[in-house]
Amino acid sequence: MNKFGFIPIAEPDLTNIERAYLNEAFDSNWISSSGKFVDQFELEWAKICQTGYSLSVSNGTVAIQLILAALGIGPGDEVIVPSLTFVASANAVKYVGATPVFADSTLNTWCIDPNSVEKLITPRTRAIMAVHLYGNPCDMKTLSRICEDRGVHLIEDAAEAPFGEIDGRRIGAFGIAASFSFYGNKILTSGEGGAVVTSDLVLYQKMKLLRGQGMDPKIRYFFPEIGYNFRLTNMQCALLCGQIERQHEILVARREVFRIYDEYLLGHPKLQFQQVISGHIRSPWLYTCLVKVGGRYLRDKLMENLSELGIETRPVFIPIHQLPPYISASQSELPVADFLGNSGISLPTSSVIDSRKIEYVAKNFLRLLEED
Question: Mean pLDDT of all residues in the chain?
Fold first, then answer.
């Protein structure tokens, strides 16, 4: 252990502002899925994402599922998904009965590779899922062109990338719809929670219908379709309204964490970093880098040694095509995703971690790296 005690990979940043909104929701007795803060959050989140509409949902996974279901994607359909992402991206495709088809990543951005995507499109392809991995925006211009040329939907999984931008346009405003997560380790949090955004009115209305068990908004207890219970509570939306009010200070603090880590680590010959495309602004989620030598063995050894010092780290996601439920004899090799999954490590990142802890993590990371 160290003089700072345990240093977690992520921490929520909650203040008296969130407490006040939470107490207001509590005192109002509107603690379920209706209330002032649900409406307020959805209006504010649509504005932040520069989209016409937003819906709060119970988590980021069902946000993806809701988009797919509302688009009518199901059995017999294929959705192209990057293999290097959190498994929820693929699970949501399976939930609607469709088949995820895994694309490789680019070595510079770590995001889905448009060249890999183009090779995977078939007559069964209904959508391409652009996951803005570790807050880094995908090459949305190329992906948008591919989708337009092939007549398929472009969906954004923006769970890790709220407030990211491409040429002044917010992440979430590029695809037919986008999903967000507000899990406890995300930039904004309600503990659990998520949202979908879109500027397509028909799609918004369909997602709203399905979110609430499929009940007709004009005829109470009449259900023209089988829907889901994907709603978020007024209390969780109250937390999010407080987080939105503090968005600037949260983002400034997290960008300072990235700056300090960069000061110590950027340019080290044994490390490699995500590259941000010109005109893109990365969302400062988890500070992540690659250990270029030694592969998974050295990366895991570094994580173990840091853990002994009370420093929690995380490996980059295991590519989904390697996971037992998704291994397929027909799946081609994805060498970049495999390399990134074996080499990546995330360091403690939050808006409440102070500079002394960041420097302690960085110095020990470097020291352990040099010892191997």
Answer: 96
Q: What percent of the chain has pLDDT over 70?
A: 99
Helix, coil or strand: residue 127: strand
DSSP string of 289-327?
Answer: EEE-SSHHHHHHHHHHHHHHTTB--EEPPPPGGGSGGG-
The answer to whether 190 and 163 are in contact (CB under 8 A) is no
What H or E segment, with its residue span, contains residue 128?
strand 125-131
- The pTM (predicted TM-score) of the whole model is 0.96
158-175 tens-digit pLDDT: 999 999 999 999 999 999
CA Rg, the chain, in Å?
21
* 2: three-class secondary structure by DSSP: coil
Confidence of residue 44 (pLDDT cuts 50, 70, 90): very high
Domain spans, the chain: 16-245, 247-371
* CATH number for the domain running over 16-245: 3.40.640.10
CATH for the stretch 247-371: 3.90.1150.10
